[in-house]
Amino acid sequence: MDKFTRIYLSVLGGIALIVLVAILYESPKVGVLNERLENQIELADYPYRFRVLEFDDGVATLSTPRAPNFSAFRALRLLFPALADEPDDSARLYDAQQELARLQTLAANVVTDDPDVNRIAWKLDERWLRDNDINPDLL
What we know:
By secondary structure, the protein is α+β, with helices and mostly antiparallel strands. It has one domain (27-138). The protein is 53% helix and 12% strand. The protein has six helices and three strands; from the N terminus they run αααββααβα. It has helices spanning 3-24, 28-38, 41-44, 72-79, 91-112, 126-131, and strands at residues 52-56, 59-64, 119-124. A three-stranded mixed beta sheet has the order 1-2-3. α4 crosses α5.
């Protein structure tokens, strides 16, 4: 292997390593907050895992399966296949929505109990959508 190829491959490998570290890096605060969420029994038993995506300047961004462009009813039908054929005015769907709201509030409270967290921002969980065969770019 000539000198140019070795240097080229070394630089390319270095860039790949930097990109990999940037993708996989989780700040220690995010890790601590996510561990608190995972240790909350009610949240651990729910089919959706709320998690802290980032922490910056006192703001913890949490994932959510619902947003203005992706309704709670759509999320619930993914989380609970037995609700897939329920009409929007179904009592079962309404109860499931109330439980989702309660657990989302619980997740926020678990995170805001940390003295470094001043407020919560919510972000639609695009990874979860993709895992459920929904393209978030088309919402």
